[in-house]
Amino acid sequence: MTLLASLNCAGELHVIVGGKAPVAAIRAKAILAAGASPILIEVSDELPKTLEGLVEEGKVKHVKEEYSKTLLQQLGRPDVDNVVDRVFVTLSHTELLLKKQVSDDCKRLRIPVNITDSAELSTFTLLSTHTAGDFQFGVTTSGKGCKLASRIKRELVSSLPPNIAEICNRVGELRKQIQEDDLEEVGGHDDDAITTSKLNSLVKEFSMTRLQQATQRSRWLSQIVEYYPLSKLAEISLEDLKEQYRQDKEESLQRKRQKLQKKGELSLVGSGPGSVSMLTLGALQEIHSADLILADKLVPQQVLDLIPKKSTRLFIARKFPGNAERAQQELLEIGLDALQKGEKVVRLKQGDPYIFGRGGEEFNFFTEHGFPPVVLPGITSALAAPVYLNIPATHREVADQVLICTGTGRRGALPNLPEFVESRTTVFLMALHRIVLLIPHLIEEKGWRADLPVAIVERASCPDQRVIRTTLEKAAAATEALGSRPPGLFIAGNACHVLTKKGDEDWTVEEGTLEPKLSGFLQQLSHPVEGERIAAEPLTPDLKVPVVAK
Ligand code: SAH
Fold this sequence. Notes:
The protein is α/β, with parallel strands linked by helices. The chain has four domains: 13-126, NAD(P)-binding Rossmann-like Domain (Rossmann fold); 163-185 and 207-260, no CATH class; 265-379, Cobalt-precorrin-4 Transmethylase, domain 1, CATH 3.40.1010.10; 382-511, 2-Layer Sandwich (Methyltransferase, Cobalt-precorrin-4 Transmethylase, Domain 2). Helices cover 38% and strands 16% of the residues. It is built from 18 helices and 19 strands. The strands form four sheets. It has a six-stranded mixed β-sheet with strand order 12-8-11-9-10-19, sandwiched between helices. A six-stranded mixed β-sheet has the order 13-14-17-15-16-18, with helices on both faces. The protein has a five-stranded parallel β-sheet with strand order 3-2-1-4-5, sandwiched between helices. The structure holds S-adenosyl-L-homocysteine. S-adenosyl-L-homocysteine binds at residues 273-274, 298, 349-352, 355-357, 380-382, 385, 429-430, 457-461, 487-489. It catalyses: uroporphyrinogen III + 2 S-adenosyl-L-methionine = precorrin-2 + 2 S-adenosyl-L-homocysteine + H(+). Siroheme synthase involved in methionine biosynthesis.
């Protein structure tokens, strides 16, 4: 195997040893075509016609001397100590000894030498070539036969587009143009303006824009050359190539823009009553994929601690008595803004989003603004709390229906409270703070039994869960006596006493939950939120929105 190369011979002086064979003229022409000057060493005057012509024209210098090594050291260019640049031997078959001698001399003098029909004595051989303008094509069989090489070459050439030379020129021109443009852009930078302090940002900007653009363009050209059918390359004009480049650039910009214009996604997700163990896998996945999480004040810390990405922003609704509407509006607007920027927003709601969570209103708001949410249910405190309290909400022959209702009506008024049903378990949400009002109303107006078993639970499923077991008539006194730890709810109905019998005392209190502590893999999921929590701040008149980056 040999190393194929294309030699730059411009200005060189090449020696041809032996001028009688027609091949000497062929060599002389090839040398001339490569921009070098041929010197013929031939003692005889009888040269083939063409060669003679070239000598007469002064294109070939004829040195009428016997070959000697010294000539190789004298005929060359002065700037390379007069040693000739390359030697072509075109002697006849019979002059084998001389060929060998020239070969040896050249090798000693480090002059590349080619000997016709004698690959083994040559340090380089010639390819069977095809030339069309700047396009050149060469075939070698590594000395196995120049006729064969020539035949193969003809076959290959016939498969090339006839205007291959033009293709070369066009692509070359475009390449040059791109390089010039790039140089102009890159060179347009004012180096003097670079100060050390600016250097980093400048380098960043520079490398991200101009340099990137420049390489993009070269890469684009390579792609065109690589993937266009040759026939098309042959027809395409420089203008077409430029237009194609412009279009491709525009398309890729559009794709980028589309990416940027990625439609925002929203999910409305229930986070369960408090414990991480009550979070659904769906909710966890949503938390993990969010750019922005909008949470309620009630969403417990343990759940917030699962927000994983440093880049995920967390906003906690600033709802406090008296500003619910404004705080809600603020939250919706922050969500909408992020959605319009193409972000993934997760609206995390305590318990289940559709149980007293204004989930339906939020669904409507976002849908009207073009972002219909995906809604994922959560475990509602109304149904989880009885379980934590060992109260079977339905139980054969005791309770055959469950009612979830609120103790808070519109604008603080009492809601429309349910009539008493002996076989029903009723769960009152948002009721503890007005239990003193509610209970007399239930007993006196709605026919509820005063001695109905009741359980009050605060912070159900959280480590500081507290349970008060009592009766309807004593529930108000119990909460007054014990104070409150919101959020809490109360459960009323015979089911409260099915599995847990109450003694004669007015009420009993149980602290804590049997909920297992976060361990193992649940702990691995936890990334405690560091820094300021914004839920503590009431909404002030100036709407400075404290979106906290995690
Ligand atoms: N969507 C929620 C309810 C929101 S209304 C859900 O499905 O659970 C808020 C009320 O829920 C509170 O006033 C309280 O009555 C109740 N609540 C929420 N979490 C609670 C918890 N961990 N323990 C007891 N009550 C809770």
